[in-house]
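Two proteins follow. First one:
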Amino acid sequence: MKQQKLLSLIRQAIQDYNMIEDGDRIAVGVSGGKDSLTLLYAMKLLQEFYPKRFELSAITCNVGFEGMDFTGVAEFCKHLEIPYEQVDTEIARIVFQENKDTRPCSLCAKLRKGAMYQRLGELGINKMAYAHNKDDFIETALMSLIYEGRFYAFPPVTELPEAGVTVIRPMMYVPERGVAHFVADQGIRVVKNTCPVDGSTKRAYAKQLMEQINRETPGAKDRIMHAIVNGRFPDWPL
């Protein structure tokens, strides 16, 4: 995916759901993966010409997995001249040693968000940008149907008054394949995920299943995304 197309899709999502207001202080949640690094790069470019002015920073929650090294993320942020925060936690120990849940992802996500939101409050940052892409939205909808018996997808904008932050998802129109190509073209180095359950989760299963469905029924992904965007979920902005 070319830079111009990436920025066009991100700007379209931001404008469709009014994700950014003048004076916003936005932190991009950076895991070190291809999606979050692409969003950070794109938001930096967008900041230069977007009509609504906003401050930009990056934040990483280090959950404590052995072998996770965010030095490259810090260097990437320095290169882009973006302030960077790393929140060090013991979430890995809590989830995999103390809790020992057979489905640890939900607890891990909850603890990561809590740690980051607390730090954002200390920094006076009012918006958190997550890098969920188009495929993430589709796979979440598929998971909700299979495991919960309902049709649900990430809201583009989520107000969290108890945390004092609003979550936005500017990459919702960007396909994962486009992100992979963009990262390769730009030579962006990603951080290897050392989570012991990476690749064996329900989300990984949903991803494989959705790829199979789309191969057998071309265009299925686009039609599902169309249903999501027009689904009128109660927690989505009108």
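Second one, unrelated to the first:
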Amino acid sequence: MTNPDSTGITESEARLAVSRMLTEDLYRMQCLTALKALNLPQGYLAAGFLRNAIWDELHGYKKATPLNDIDVIYFNPSDTSKDTELNIERALTSQVPSAHWQVKNQARMHLNHGHNAYRDCEEAISYWVEQETCVAIRLCPNVGNDTFDMLAPYGLSSNFAGTISINPRHPRDDVFTQRVKTKNWLVTWPQLTLGSALVRSI
């Protein structure tokens, strides 16, 4: 087991906590199972799908905060067509019609930021705006539906610390500030704290 950090929880403990939370969340498990059935290359449910579940847990919410959308990521450099992404969205919608699926092939997303091509999904999400948003999860392929595979290039400690902080690898102060304001995170989860002095006035 790794050493505890300032949050009082180790990375291995955080991952066990996530596994427990999602196993108990019937809706999220339904979404994870739907994604697994498509067998996408490096297919994960990312960002708020996992981040919000942790924040709900920290706040003791008995009912999950509704998800505006469900971000699906995968990695297929041999087919970066947006039509393929739309087809995947339709396939997922046929399984879970209540979900608003948003599918993005991370093999093409480097073009949005002028980066070199990403190696995989983990590198792609490591550039997202907030450190706590750089997380993704899936049910492990070829095993039972109780084993999870998680991506967290910065670890899960800040998620369990209840902070919202600028991505240290790719800081975009204006975008970060705007997202904190428009997404009302500090209203929905009032115990969260801002992890950057740049936006203390929000």
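SUMMARY FIELD: DSSP finds eight helices and seven strands in the chain. The longest helix spans residues 82-95.
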